[in-house]
Amino acid sequence: MKAYHAGWVIYYCELSGVAAFAVTGTLMAGRKSLDWFGVITISLVTALGGGALRDVLMAHYPIEWVSNENGFLVGVSASLGTMIWARTLKTFNDRVLLVADAFGLAVFTVRGTDMALQQNLPPSIAVIMGVATAVAGGVMRDVLCNEVPLVFKREVYASISILGAVAYITLLDLQISLEVASAIAIAFVFVSRIAAIRWKWKLPRFDVVD
Predict the structure, then answer these.
(1) Using an 8 Å Cβ cutoff, are 131 and 162 in contact?
(2) What residue stretches are annotated with the Glycine transporter domain (predicted)?
């Protein structure tokens, strides 16, 4: 497996993903009526938590958001902007939260997978790192807000992230350029997640009968 290096598409999409996840964290915290400090904390945990976990698992130090403040600044700005927007409209829109979450899932799936490939990790581990990057922040957000994490419900969520990571690696192995491969994989995960929400796709449940 050759080493890949993140291009400008992934970098700017990653910042957009940070903003998107910060929005979801802010809206979730707003529903719990937290103060402004609590809201920003939840938004940053959501936006940066998955990447931090990925870096720890890969022993990639310093952790990315510590060494590069852009993600932190984008997250704080997105959180403050969302608080102003939500206070002005006097409403929290479920659709905005779900769309923002879908975009963040798509972007961080590709980003986490790409970083693992840069470290010359096996493809299977790269998929795991992609999924961890994409879903861990949301899990932390939901746990801190006393909600059942979305990834543990019957929602088609983490499985879409897995397919997106596999698609990204496959496209790169087919010698498709990084920018095109990342754009296709991001679009695939985003559209698939929106479709799952729209048509209420569910995973089968496992029930043990006594």
Answers:
(1) yes
(2) 12-84, 99-171
